[in-house]
Design a protein that fits this description.
Blueprint (H helix, E strand, L loop, with lengths): L1 E3 L2 E3 L3 H8 L3 H8 L7 H14 L5 H4 L8 E6 L5 H17 L2 E6 L4 H11 L5 E4 L5 H8 L4 E4 L8 E7 L1 H13 L5 E6 L16 H12 L7 E4 L3 H14 L5 E4 L2 H13 L9 E6 L12 E5 L1 H17 L10 E7 L5
Parallel strand pairs: 3-4, 3-5, 5-6, 6-7, 7-13, 8-9, 8-10, 10-11, 11-12
Antiparallel strand pairs: 1-2, 12-13
Helix pairs in contact: 1-2, 1-3, 2-3, 5-12, 6-7, 8-9, 10-11
């Protein structure tokens, strides 16, 4: 075990690789007595691992069968159907490998996330999902386990991530509205929790807000008015009412996600507006739920099945020491899916 200023953590294969001056794949070959490695290099790696007190994980040591590998999936809100769909996709991908997935719901609260990581570090072989704590704290709490973040660019070298890139989909959505004649378009952005926000205490614009602003500019439209919404139907309903009280002339609105957009549909109906005749509404995520509302929700849709599969695949590669997937293969894009609301 290695000692640090924040406590004791497990020495990782990356620590051994750095200390020995080789790649993690070389360390894996040396520890598993594989070929394609020189005798002197192999001995240097073994000596380094011994000096550092490196203990391979249960998975790497082969002390357990593959069907007992466990992955901890951390989700901020299982009541949000998007996260439920992501969890279902990850479960399917893990099931194909004979793995177990333990799903943890943090309620999008920092203290719950902290407590979750403290509990699961000794119970799983890898941690994947949506984590918002500072990276040094995640690093300390996960104690050398492989970590795959979703929709967050990591700075810590031992972390990996699955990136969500919906920029082109948002541009397609705003272009569709502009071509339909809309000039006054608003946005319902997500009201971030306080510990996600800037040091000033003011919430920072979400990445989807920045995509929206860029898309508006690309279409030659003035910056749209924005209201912040909780990630719930009620949050979307309340935010649209507030936005329309300031800008009753809006003819279209783009929402941070489908749940907020569905709330906007309810608010539009309650204020006497017909969708899409009086107010066009576009969401983001591509939830199946969007096909069940009236009118069916136009959305910028993500491939949640691919998101779950990539997360599990990258965790597997980190566990076995195989080469990680290249960055361009770790990105999940989004596309505009036209339905009845816009």
């Amino acid at each position: 075990m290695a000692s640090s200023g924040t406590g004791t953590r497990r020495v990782t294969i990356d620590d051994v690789a750095r200390a020995a001056g080789v790649s993690r794949q070389t360390v894996s070959r040396a520890l598993n007595d594989k070929g394609e490695i020189g005798v002197s290099t192999k001995q240097r790696v073994l000596d380094t691992a011994l000096a550092l007190g490196y203990r391979p994980s249960r998975f790497a040591r082969g002390l357990v069968r593959q069907d007992t590998v466990s992955v901890g999936l951390v989700i901020p809100d299982l009541l949000n159907p998007f996260f439920t769909e992501v969890a279902a996709a990850a479960l399917e991908a893990a099931r194909d490998r004979g793995w177990h997935v333990v799903v943890y719901d943090t309620g999008d609260r920092a203290e719950e996330e902290r407590g979750t990581l403290e509990v699961i570090a000794s119970q799983v072989d890898a941690v994947v999902g949506y984590l918002h704590l500072p990276e040094d704290e995640i690093d300390r709490l996960t104690r050398g386990l492989p970590v795959v973040l979703i929709d967050r660019e990591p700075r810590t070298p031992r972390f990996s991530s699955i990136r969500i890139d919906g920029e082109q989909g948002v541009h397609a959505a705003i272009r569709h509205l502009a071509e339909a004649g809309h000039r006054r378009i608003g946005m319902l952005d997500h009201a971030d929790r306080p510990d996600h926000s800037a040091r000033s205490g003011r919430p920072e614009p979400s990445i989807r807000h920045r995509w929206f602003d860029a898309a508006m500019a690309a279409c030659g439209l003035e910056a749209g008015s924005v209201a912040r919404a909780d990630q719930s139907v009620e949050g979307g309903e309340s935010a649209l009412r507030e936005l329309l009280s300031r800008r009753p002339d809006l003819t279209a609105v783009f929402a941070f996600n489908d749940i907020i957009a569905i709330g906007a549909l309810r608010a539009a109906r309650a204020t006497g507006r017909q969708v899409p005749r009086d107010l066009a509404v576009i969401g983001f995520d591509g939830l199946r739920l969007g096909t069940l509302v009236e009118p069916p929700l136009t959305t910028v849709a993500l491939d949640t099945r691919r998101l779950g599969a990539l997360t599990v695949e990258q965790a597997a590669r980190m566990l076995t020491g195989d080469d990680p997937l290249p960055a361009d293969e770790l990105t999940v894009g989004a596309e505009l899916r036209l339905r009845g609301s816009a």
